[in-house]
Amino acid sequence: MPGFEATRLLVYFSLFFWRSVEHPSIYLIILSSFLFFSGILGSSVDDIWAFFIEIATPEDGNFILPCCTLLLYCELWRRKGLEFTSIQASHSKTKKVILFCSRISYENVDSSVVTGTYNSYVLDGEEGGSNVTDSRQSIPKVSIPSLPDEDNGDNVAPISSSFWEWKPKFTVHYETSGSENVGSPPVLFLPGFGVGSFHYEKQLKDLGRDYRAWALDFLGQGMSLPCEDPTMQSKDGNKYMLDQESNVWGFGDESETWAKELVYSIDLWRDQVRYFVEEVIKEPVYIVGNSLGGFVALYFAACNPELVKGVTLLNATPFWGFLPNPERSPRLSRIFPWAGTFPLPSSVRKFIEILWQKISDPRSIAEILKQVYADHSTKVDEVFSRIIETTQHPAAAASFASIIFAPQGQLSFKEALTRCQMNGTPICLMYGKEDPWVRPVWGLQVKCQVPDAPYYEISPAGHCPHDEVPEVVNFLLRGWIQNLESDGSVMLPLLDGPENTDCNVTKDLEFTREGSRKSVRVRFYGNKLSVWSWLSSHFKPLFENRSH
């Protein structure tokens, strides 16, 4: 059709620019314009899909731009009113309703209402649509253990709360379970930004029955905030306070001796984890990190391979810090007069006051939790109350300022990953598909750099899969550790044999929670995963079924 031929010319032209322009953003701007006009020209979705498969070759090594291209094109089609909605199709002589969800920004959903893949569903035409299967083939269902419930008489690992003094005035809070499991593998959990060890209590209660488990609070977060003001107040008593009727620490005139070099940076947290493993756990560990904790886990493993048995990344943030690292870029770092030390300079205090009042508002915290949890039926009351409790600490505002103004680490995420790969550190990836912050494409980048790393995509699940679907994460984590501990004699979760490690496997994991049956879809991406097969698995069903 004429529209498609015009699109073909436009995309070929854009590919020429892709290979000739010096900066990717220029290419993206050009291609965005081309795709917009190609959408106006009315190209067929099926033709466009076939054409993308034809021209999309990974030989350039840069897959972010083609990914953006395809996502952008799908979004343009959606905005034109061609969003994939319910249509009728004939399948095995039975009329069924095929529902498509092509939204590129993932919507929050209630898994008690919707089970199955977000790419395509086939629901029986009968009222209720209780039988959910893939549009092309039936997805195997696997029953997994539910979380232990003490009220039902289940064996729950007790959690103990402790404090460890790393340095004078540097007191670290941590929780532990399973200490009686002598000889079992040790597992250390690292939390994300703004939370603490409490975010892993569902892991400690369950996995603590089989392993020795620890979860710590980073310095400056959770219950590892300072026990006294890191700054000295002015002689006239004129304090900088966010609230004139409350005591706020960190806004004095000069720092206390013990806090002279205190910066809540990723380098500090890396060292904190190192000494915690050496002095408290006293042996190499499996380390699990979510979001910021994932970055720290990888960074720590890259710098201390002798202390790590394996790393599991749960929607790990691929970057942290905005200011340059003084060791990597000494000249550039001198441009910035302040890099997270105490006390806060007067030039940033008003900014921090406004920002902190906004971000610590319970309504803001509730909205953030609503964003990062894909399943709104998940109970987050305990998480919410613990976050609120932390924001009320007198050092919370200044600690927050130190964190966001702290310099970057000595290694980037990619550099840390490369070093772990060179050291032969086992890595496992578990990513919630509906994460609005760390999109699945970031996990895909890690998978492409470390092809042997098992990659489990969990849906529905957002930024915190360990708290949203702990049954699934605990099941996968157990299986991965068993696989490593057995030197591969125990197969990885979801796999039936060693030959499956090269293949992509999709299964529905079913479990019971509070008397209701839940189903979560998990995709395992094998060693031969390519960017294009990943894109195809997500988008091709949409285009294929539209032609029926």
UniProtKB/TrEMBL annotation:
A GO BP annotation: chlorophyll catabolic process
Pfam families, alphabetized: Abhydrolase_6
Domain of life (superkingdom): Eukaryota
SUPFAM superfamilies listed in its UniProt record: alpha/beta-Hydrolases (SSF53474)
Entry's Gene Ontology molecular function annotations: pheophytinase activity
PANTHER family registered for this protein in UniProt: PHEOPHYTINASE, CHLOROPLASTIC (PTHR47280)
Name used for this protein in its record: Pheophytinase, chloroplastic
Lineage: Eukaryota, Viridiplantae, Streptophyta, Embryophyta, Tracheophyta
